[in-house]
UniProtKB/TrEMBL annotation, chain A:
Major localisation: membrane
Regions crossing the membrane: 40-59, 79-102, 123-148, 160-184, 191-213, 252-272
Protein name stated in the entry: Transport permease protein
Subcellular location: Cell membrane; Membrane
Source organism: Streptomyces alfalfae
TrEMBL record, chain B:
Organism for this UniProt entry: Streptomyces alfalfae
Topology with respect to the bilayer: Peripheral membrane protein
Main location: membrane
Subcellular location: Cell membrane
InterPro entries per UniProt: AAA+_ATPase, ABC_transporter-like_ATP-bd, ABC_transporter-like_CS, ABC_transporter_ATP-binding, DrrA, P-loop_NTPase
Family note: Belongs to the ABC transporter superfamily. Drug exporter-1 (DrugE1) (TC 3.A.1.105) family.
Superkingdom of the organism of origin: Bacteria
Keyword field: Antibiotic resistance, ATP-binding, Cell membrane, Membrane, Nucleotide-binding, Translocase, Transport
Protein name, UniProt field: ABC transporter
Annotated ABC transporter domain residues: 8-238
Amino acid sequence: MSVALTVDPSRERPHGRLFWALADSGNVTRRYLTHFLRQPVTIAWQLGFPIISVLLYGFVFGEAMKVPGGGDDGDYKQFLMPGMFVMTMAFGFMNTAMAVVTDASKGVIDRFRSMPMAPSAVASGRGVADLVVACAELTILAATALAIGWRSSGGLLDTALAFALLLLLRFSLIWVGVYLGLVVPTPEAAGGLYAVAFPLTMISSVFVAPSLMPDWLAPVAAWNPVSSTGTAARELFGNPGAGGGTWVEQHAVLMAVVWPLAISLVFLPLAVRRFKALSR
Amino acid sequence: MNGDGFAVRAEGLRKRYGDKDALDGFDLRVEQGTVHGLLGPNGAGKTTAVRILSTLVRLDSGHAEVAGADVVREPALVRARIGLTGQYAAVDEILTGRQNLEMFGRLFHLGARRAALRARELLEQFHLEDAAEKGAGQYSGGMRRRLDLAASMILAPGVLFLDEPTTGLDPRSRLEVWDTVRDLVARGTTVLLTTQYLEEADRLASRVTVIDRGRAIADDTPDGLKNTVGGSHLDVVVRETADLPAAVRAVRRVCAGEPLVVDVERRVQAAVTDRVRALTDMARTLQDEGVAVEDIGLRRPSLDDVFLRLTGQTSGTAAAPGTTAVPDEKEVAA
């Protein structure tokens, strides 16, 4: 009855290591995307949160908030939407961290490590899945934003570039998530990361322009990587409140590329080192 | 594979965590096609040994070959020839049983078609067909463990590591897992089984290594280990703790073996050779001394006895609370 399955390492040689690294990564991605098919409620929650945020902040704060240089009623909504996009991307590292720590604490990562698969696929497969989910999130957010009156007055190219920058930020946070997922001991402890995620997004240009903040807080908010991506998106979408007096605000598009690269340069090696430390 | 008939061969394994030696010159030989038990108290180094042999952890020094490949120089080869079932059922709880096995099959590089075929086979072999389309999170503990074992068996590994496979399972699930393990060995797999349950090693293993403080302190068949303690035990439970010293004196007079005292149970044990005479002599001696006896009897030794005896003697810190090995002029040859 049983097919004799013995391993013949030479069978793998025709394809080489890169092929298997990609194939393994694809299979890990498939695993996570199957999760959403198995549990549609999970993705409904995950995508529902930004929609509710858009409606909540848009309508509750919408009338009361001021935008520097803006005047009309609808300005805050125009200002806020790119902020919501970037906040959703920023919070994404929590999902990555949670998936990694769950696998680590349940022995799934050990199982992967005891198998003849490419070790890099554990993280890269999750990363690709995260980017697929991020695309879905941005699509739904943009649709919701359009429905309540947000518009991009930038050209097609600028609009596409803005979304690319949002995804670039999400990409860099994959490595932060993988690293933190390997550092925190349990999924329960990972829940505490909200205490990091929340100020990270609040002390930024997501909800309020830094120029309206106290003098000591304004530079912190302006130099927040989340702000750079948010401000760059506003600039490219042609939404109000993009400007600001400081150098970092004036070079938002540049910084929206520099910050994610810097974050990746720091956290990718950290994550790799942490992963290798598992065999210590 | 090397032709000497050993599926696992470890020599002088050392692993240090901080200032603690998890393994301190650990040796192990596991014969091909057998179940080999690795017994030891918590923290003795069982899991560290398994993690080194399954390439999850690097060793500090020593040498280990698993299924004919060196764990340090040829980890990829080792990984292609082993299965590992750790202390947790390491399956994806959201995916179905079938999806789990197909995913692991693809990650074992079987290709989609063969992975699906192998998943179907394993679901049948591990009696999981009915639950194949259910999420693994809904499985019972025993079913999840069987799925975990099935995932370890995708490539029909030469060596399967089972790290406490029945910890936390109810008795019925435990029997199911034991049946599965026996079945796997009948198909030619070598199993290294770590366990805290001596009964488990007794039932499954043809050979047992006892590990304590990172070293192998005994290696024998379960029967051989029991014989080191003696053929049978005389077991006396006194009514009053104050009578324990008198009972120990009586046991010394009558029995050949060194007495083992379990204070909290008011119990004295010793190996005997002439079973019936020891029992009658003992009853008479205790009566003469005026010791009130709650229970007296002859017991065949269990692996528990062996375990307590071995770890109690070598480590000083007894494996079970309230156990003291009484020093005696007559040393038992272990």
